[in-house]
Amino acid sequence: MCKGLASLPSCCLERANVLKARLGSILQKPNWNFSRCKMGQTNPTLEECLRWKQSFEKLLSSKRGLCAFTTFLVSEFSEENIAFYFACEDYRNTKSASKLSDKAQKIYDEFISTDAPREINIDHETRDITKANLLALTPSCFDPAQHKIYMLMAKDCYPRFLRSPAYKDLVQQARQGTKNQEKKV
């Protein structure tokens, strides 16, 4: 190990190793491929792809849109955002009071804690509010943090997704599929 790396805290080195492993797996798969999503054998239609462009909500409400967006987030090393968002949705819909505590702790440990393996990007104030909310569990404990992450995705990740080669390739494939269907008729 070089002298520069030896002076870094071990947590930084561990994080670098995780990122190196993730990057290596992406580099072995050079082309973004929608088929990695487990949504069946059919690609989205042109109409479906264009609907995703209408709003972030429409993208998230589509199974294929969510899959494509998640794959895009993985390629940008920010899939923790969508994972956190849906973990909060699952938590909010939990009916059993006994399960709330376990789920809340799991979400906090995985996404909110400063040493969380999939730490989300929220400010200290929101982190502190969320931590305080965990003292008196309610279905809305994570709402402030979830809202921050939703807005981050809606205002930053979503527009980048729409400009990405991944989205453009899906639209192009859907257009080609539409043309091929018209030729058969």
TrEMBL record:
Q: Which SUPFAM superfamilies match?
A: Regulator of G-protein signaling, RGS (SSF48097)
Span of domain RGS = 55-171
Q: Which domain of life is it from?
A: Eukaryota
Where in this chain does the entry annotate a coiled-coil region? none
Fetch the Pfam families from UniProt.
RGS
Q: Which SMART domains match?
A: RGS
What the entry lists under Gene3D superfamilies is as follows: Regulator of G-protein Signalling 4, domain 2
Q: What is this protein called?
A: Regulator of G protein signaling 16
Q: In the UniProt record, what gene is named as encoding this protein?
A: LOC101079544
